[in-house]
């Protein structure tokens, strides 16, 4: 689970350079908010909006925290916007945009026909998902 905090402090399982505000389908993000000069110490209300009819849901809502839940299935990337609005002064709000990606898939091209003694190579790639990705190669022996 990734955690984000409104304001200048970001507490997350991965740093901003590597993850930005992006997650994969089915993942969650914990968000917190505080309101300065809130005479009643009332906190915030939460809302979520999205694009193309997709937005995800909010759970565990309190006046200081919420969890954003990305949809379980996503066919194309979209951006959800979670907004915290001051209860005491509804003209004050803060929003964070979260890009939600479909799960990663390996994109490959067919390899040429193998011929003994002839080297060939292929470059794998990925579609979807939220990087960074780590690729590994497992050496194998080709048999006649």
Report on the architecture of this protein.
The protein contains one helix and ten strands; from the N terminus they run E-H-E-E-E-E-E-E-E-E-E. It has one helix spanning 16-19, and strands at 2-5, 22-24, 28-32, 44-49, 57-59, 65-69, 78-86, 93-101, 105-107, 125-127. The protein is rod-shaped, with a radius of gyration of 22 Å. Residues 1-19 have low confidence and may be disordered. Helices cover 3% and strands 35% of the residues. A four-stranded mixed β-sheet has the order 1-3-6-5, with no helix packed on it. With 144 residues, the protein is mainly beta. It has a domain at 2-101: Sandwich (Immunoglobulin-like), CATH 2.60.40.
What's the helix and strand layout?
Layout (H helix, E strand, L loop, with lengths): L1 E4 L10 H4 L2 E3 L3 E5 L11 E6 L7 E3 L5 E5 L8 E9 L6 E9 L3 E3 L17 E3 L17
Parallel strand pairs: 1-3, 2-8
Antiparallel strand pairs: 3-6, 4-7, 5-6, 7-8, 9-10
Write a concise synopsis of the structure shown.
This protein has about 140 residues and is an all-beta fold.
Largest beta-sheet characterization: 4 strands, mixed
Give the class from helix and strand content and strand pairing. mainly beta
Could you spell the SSE succession in H and E letters? EHEEEEEEEEE
Name the CATH architecture of the domain at 2-101. Answer: Sandwich
Helix percent band? under 10%
- Highest CATH level, the class of the domain at 2-101: Mainly Beta
Kindly estimate the percentage of residues that lie in beta strands according to DSSP. 25-35%
* CATH domain fold name of the domain at 2-101: Immunoglobulin-like
Question: What low-confidence regions span 5 or more consecutive residues with pLDDT below 50?
Answer: 1-19
Average pLDDT, all residues: 79
The neighbouring-strand order within the major sheet is: 1-3-6-5
Kindly report how far apart the N and C termini lie: 47 Å
Number of helical regions: 1
For the CA atoms, what is the radius of gyration? Answer: 22 Å
Quaternary status: single chain
Number of strands: 10
Name the overall outline.
Answer: rod-shaped
